[in-house]
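Late entry, iron/sulfur cluster complex.
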Amino acid sequence: MSKSTSTFPLSIGPTHPAFKEPVKFSFEVDGEKIVRTDMDFGYTHRGIEHVARERNFIQVIYLLERICGICSVSHPMAYCLAVENAAGIEVPPRAKYVRTIIGELERLHSHLLWTGVAAHEIGFDTLFLHTWDIREKVMDCLELLTGNRVNYAMLTIGGVRRDIAPEHYGILEETLDYYRELYNRTREILLEDLTVQMRCRDIGVLTYEDAVALCAVGPTARASGLPKDVRIDYPCNAYPDIEWLRPASPRDIGKEPRGDVFDRMIVRVLEMKQSVEIVGFCLDNMPDGEIVVESKAIKLINQLKKVKGDGLGRYEAPRGEVAHFDILDEREGPAQIKVKAPTYSNAAAWAVMFNGAEIADIPIIAASIDPCIACADRMTVIKNGCGGLSFTAEELHRLSVEKQKRIKATCGNS
Amino acid sequence: MLASVYKIIEQFFTEKSTNLFPAKRKPASVSEFLARKPLIAPVPTPPDYRGRLAFDYQACIGCAMCEKVCPARAIEMYPVIEKEKRTKRIVIYLARCTFCSECVKVCPRDAITMSGDFMMADYDRNSPSLVVGLEERRKNEVAPEEKPDTPQE
Ligand code: SF4
Ligand code: SF4
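Prediction complete; structure with ligand written out below:
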């Protein structure tokens, strides 16, 4: 890096009070303006993929739940879909609906949490406490349905572990009504209040073209006008039955998408409403029947032990697309597992968003993609004890091809 | 704008769900002081809440299925002699447990159950209150079986 007289480097992180998780930003600033951004990840690498290879199929579900505390249903969902895909297990219809309900309640609480965090980042702490207060209702609901407040331990391969009992319907409906009632008021505070707009309009812009080029996913992509949603593009669970479901877009409330932080707020507010309606739909159309193909864990492991093959599971987490690729190789657990978290796709967009922004806007721009760094940290390079290694795209491609060959060799010819 | 003001005013009249710090100065006896002052109770847990585990020593048959499925490896087996036969029993380290209830479901004898108790904080992760089945272990554990000699390399 050459020294310049007009700009100077500003380093934020790896741990910094403005961020919830460790990530290192190296900015090049010209006065208050950011002219160049570089990022460094890997401070929360936990080796989950490696640990997963040492565990059996059932244990892996709970391990993957802990990749992300907020999307704690999305990761096991993608994993279960991948294993079901590989083993050719058909999930009973009722289980699909229960999965959808849990997934959408999770999206609702995650978006409410994000709204609170965003409000906090712009210094609007009253709103932060207000949204987190609202959020308690859905947390209680999840606790009632699953028995846990976070990390619900609800999914299993081939179904779900707990049914939605008749006495739960009333409470669920009540919760939905509570949110339907609150929607207008919350929307007014979030989308019409000048305080929020002043800090979020035209900040951290990601244009449509950039969103396409950088493969943004989830609300970040939708706020840039990209109609991209795994729930609609590759529907799983109950989503194929919901015909009215469309990717949320600022156009829904008559605003042309600009791809700024405020648009991301709009998309998330609209998605909260969507989630409430989806849960309502699922409750009204809940099919009867079994909730799981094989409820005995040991039997299930023994069944999966005979399977050879691979499967891909894709699911729309609150932050965007999560994809899991699993290879089964006649073992008690997955022979290989690859996790792609939404932040991994969205982090590249940061570089564009930060350009031209001011230093004071760094926290809200960083928070606007709803980052989950721990989800995205899948690799750390340590060589002779010194860091600072970098790879080009070609090198990474070559390394991954090599790794794939190595895995194929250890897994026979699956 | 109005919505925010409305919300703030509303806040003055809602019931409190947290406790303010109850005393200005340290009272002579903390427990007596707390007994006098009614505190707002924690939110009740729903039925089927996944809380503290309980283990029924008599019901267990030592099949080790719970040990196999436990994702946190929180379950440890130890040898015992029951009805003049060598078998095994378990202890559960709650400090490691993730409260997934996989062990509860897998157990053929329903020897493990879950309760609504969630107040488990302790200073020591191995303290007796955090190891389920520790008392039985102290009473019944026997020396592990002698392994047949393996040829030395
Ligand atoms: S609840 Fe889950 S983590 Fe806890 S002991 Fe049972 S199987 Fe292990
Ligand atoms: S599964 Fe039940 S019976 Fe078997 S060892 Fe565990 S507690 Fe005992």
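The two ends of chain B are 80 Å apart (CA to CA). Will revisit in the morning.
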